[in-house]
Automatic annotation (TrEMBL):
Classification via InterPro entries: Peptidase_M18 (IPR001948), Peptidase_M18_dom2 (IPR023358)
Alphabetic keyword roster: Aminopeptidase, Hydrolase, Metal-binding, Metalloprotease, Protease, Zinc
Assigned GO CC terms: cytoplasm
Protein name: M18 family aminopeptidase
């Protein structure tokens, strides 16, 4: 598989995944094309050695399992998350000001707000409808046309705009949607878009979870095309790379890809990393194929390893003082091991040594990130999943700029680097 083919597939995945529901559906599409079978959590499971199966929860979180041909003794787990910071619509979204229909929003996660101004915004998410026969159905919606914008205030009217002024998301972020919108009906617009995309006529809108997003497509940037610029690289890049590694592997070892929703808001949900999703699935798999009982499950978990993949902060050429002098990861310099003495990352010397050995095996450079001692440190699903399951874990990621912006930047070569390492991990016989 050529690097260019992988990059084209990545750009297509990013473009078609404006929300966690779309990202999960797109991963499901590739899994099913590769022969993975869907499991229903409400049904009894019949599993066979060597099978490849997947489970979704809330349509926004995914677990894919490659079951070993032999005994279920260890699992090579790759973790990522499907959600990204952004602007979500409030339930009663329409509001009118100065003759314009606007949409009330709330900020999802720790979004960098300033870059959202003056962008062409589409609308996507999940809508639940009622049919004429009373049946309820959830459908995905993706309005790719630029239908909204959050206009900036002119510098002439705000002379302090470039002096670090704070942004009030309640009063200064609602996007404009339609002029003369006093009588506009958002439900009517939603029904029209659903009819266009799903052929559903005459349905009633019951509820929705919708987000705004930048319709500018992802692209390669730089004289040599060495960069990728896109929305939602954090953390769809890890979802894509984890899926590539699983599908590229030889299929002999037991492996898991888990992509949780809600990481950006703390992971505390039924389908988040702090919830029971992964534990529920692994207990059922162990009951079907592994050593039975609680002791058998604990032995399986302690024999397994989890590589939690979430992007890392690359050294910014304009802000070099924001990094520790000895720990400034370079874009296109290889995957980054993330370390924090206070357990904001789950890496320890044992799991880090395994990853460094995998990088040596795959002939891939490896880097390390530690935040400055005088700055706070973010976290990810690694410590949460490790705490919930007890599985030995490390946190790694592709280096990137502008994390949590509406458009982020990463390196082309790093996509191939991390895919090669994770493929070697999935194929590794001894953990």
């Amino acid at each position: 598989m050529t690097q260019n083919a992988r990059l084209e597939r990545l750009l297509d995945f990013l473009r078609r995944s404006p929300t966690p529901w779309h990202a999960t559906a797109n991963m499901v599409e590739r899994l099913e094309a590769a022969g993975f079978r869907r499991l229903d959590e409400t049904a009894a499971w019949q599993l066979e050695p060597g099978e490849r199966v997947y489970i979704t929860r809330n349509d926004s979180s995914l677990i894919a399992l490659q079951l070993p041909h032999g005994p279920l003794e260890a699992l090579r787990m790759i973790g990522a998350h499907t959600d990204s910071p952004g602007l979500r619509l409030k339930p009663q979204a329409p509001q009118v000001a100065a003759g314009w229909l606007q949409l009330g929003i709330e900020v999802y996660g720790g979004a960098l707000l300033a870059p959202w101004y003056d962008r062409d915004l589409g609308l996507a998410g999940r809508v639940h409808v009622r049919h004429d026969d009373g049946r309820l159905e959830g459908v995905k919606l993706n309005v790719e046309q630029p239908l909204a914008i959050v206009p900036s205030l002119a510098i002439h009217l705000d002379r302090d705009a470039n002096n670090g002024r704070s942004i009030n998301p309640q009063t200064e972020m609602p996007p404009v949607l339609l002029q003369g919108g006093e009588d506009a009906d958002l439900d009517r617009l939603l029904r029209s878009w659903i009819a266009d995309q799903h052929g559903l006529e005459g349905v009633e809108i019951i509820d929705f979870e919708l987000a705004l997003y930048d319709v500018q497509p992802p692209s390669r940037v730089g004289v040599d095309g060495e960069l990728i610029a896109s929305a939602r690289l954090d953390n769809l890049l890890s979802c894509f790379i984890g899926l590539e590694a699983l599908l590229d592997s030889d299929g002999r070892q037991g492996a898991v890809l888990v992509a949780n929703d809600h990481e950006e808001v703390g992971s505390a949900s039924a389908c988040g990393a702090q919830g029971p999703f992964l534990g529920d699935v692994l207990k059922r798999v162990n009951a079907a194929l592994g050593e039975p009982g609680e002791e058998g499950f604990i032995r399986l978990i302690q024999s397994s390893r989890l590589i939690s993949c979430d992007n890392a902060h690359a050294l910014h050429p304009n802000f070099r003082d924001k990094h520790d002098a000895a720990h400034g990861p370079a874009i296109n310099g290889g995957p980054v091991i993330k370390v924090n003495a206070n357990q904001r990352y789950a890496t320890n010397s044992d799991t880090s040594a395994m990853f460094r050995d995998l990088c040596r095996q795959a002939d891939v450079p490896v880097q390390t990130f530690v935040t400055r001692a005088d700055m706070g440190c973010g976290s990810t699903i690694g410590p949460i999943t490790s705490t919930e399951l007890g599985v030995p874990t490390l946190d790694v990621g592709v280096p990137q700029w502008a994390m949590h912006s509406i458009r982020e930047t990463a390196g082309v070569r790093d996509v191939d680097y991390l895919t090669r390492v994770l493929t070697a991990f999935v194929e590794r016989e001894e953990l």
